[in-house]
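Backbone shape codes:
===
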Amino acid sequence: MYETWWVEGGLVMVGIVLVMFYRQFQALVRAMRWSADGEVRVLARVMIIATLGSFVFGMFHQTHVNPMLFALLGMGAALPRTAPLLRAQKKAGR
């Protein structure tokens, strides 16, 4: 239930969470559209689906206390930065 962020943190917390969610989707869409590696594009699509599922699940359950929500947000935010590293490791044969 996302109203916990509203009740406990007020407008400041809701603003921070909205920016965090926006940057998550922005990073995933950027990785999905602009990555030269097909595996990164597939990973970005899967993470968008998982993020949407987690957000819908959070409408009915308290997912804001679940560490997997924040792990998913962190992986999505880091994907555009780590995609070149993944591509370099793939070329090196690791």
